[in-house]
Amino acid sequence: MLLLALDTATPAVTVALHDGDDVIASSSQVDARRHGELLLPAVDRVLAEAGLRLDAVTGIVAGIGPGPYTGLRVGLMTADTFGLALGVPVHGVCTLDGLAYAADLDGPFVVATDARRKEVYWARYADSRTRLTEPAVDRPADIADQVAGLPAVGAGALLYPDTFPQAREPEHVSAAALARLAVERLKAGQELPAPRPLYLRRPDAQVPKNYKVVTPK
């Protein structure tokens, strides 16, 4: 087994290689505006660090969000392209699940990432491997009662201390955590979903109302 894991659902552009036993190379850079520019060089970097070629990869793991449309699609399109070119399966893992796994907490807690527009993408967890709620996008003040008293991880939690007073790191997801979680689930016989994006809301760019299509006669 050699899994290539990547995620661009948060400001972190993160890539890792997992050989079935552990992560053998990883790279993470935080830059919310350069996902497309940074991702492929990061893939090259981790392959070079491991002394391997891309054609040695037996599977792809992609973070499926939730996340902003522009950043998220960079990682998912890259993962799908690699899968088609190499003829290997592509597995999707919720980005919030990767953050929860990296947090390594035993009791109930919350994961919240920055959704911009003064909102967070969030979900509740029973422990680092068990999600209790579906990912959602909300204003922090609107979910204060649902997260009260719970530890919280992620950039969204750190941004809003009034709602998440027990906020802590990790701030962003790491592909290393995604890879470890994916391998654990695969070895347990779980079927990982296809890499379909969790956008949760419409993209900023939309067709204006009353738009008229003009075609030549």
Report on this structure.
It is built from 6 helices and 11 strands. The chain has 217 residues and is an alpha/beta fold. The strands form 2 sheets. Strands 6, 7, 8, 9, 10 and 11 form a 6-stranded mixed sheet that branches. It has a 5-stranded mixed sheet with strand order 3-2-1-4-5, sandwiched between helices. A hairpin with a 2-residue loop joins strand 6 (109-116) and strand 7 (119-127). Helix 1 (35-50) crosses helix 2. The radius of gyration is 18 Å and the shape is globular. The protein starts with a strand and ends in a 30-residue tail after the last helix. The mean pLDDT is 93. Residues 32-144 form the Gcp-like domain. This is tRNA (Adenosine(37)-N6)-threonylcarbamoyltransferase complex dimerization subunit type 1 TsaB. It comes from Streptomyces cellulosae.
Q: Return the average pLDDT rounded to an integer.
A: 93
| Terminal residue distance | 58 Å
Largest sheet: 6 strands, mixed
**Helical amount among residues, as a percent range?**
25-40%
Shape: globular
Structural class based on helices, strands and sheet pairing: alpha/beta
Topology as a string of helices (H) and strands (E)? EEEHEHEHEEEEHEHEH
Please report the number of helical segments: 6
Number of strands: 11
Q: Could you list the spans in which at least 5 consecutive residues all have pLDDT below 50?
A: none
Gyration radius from CA atoms, angstroms: 18 Å
User: What portion of the residues fall into strands of 2 or more residues?
Assistant: 25-35%
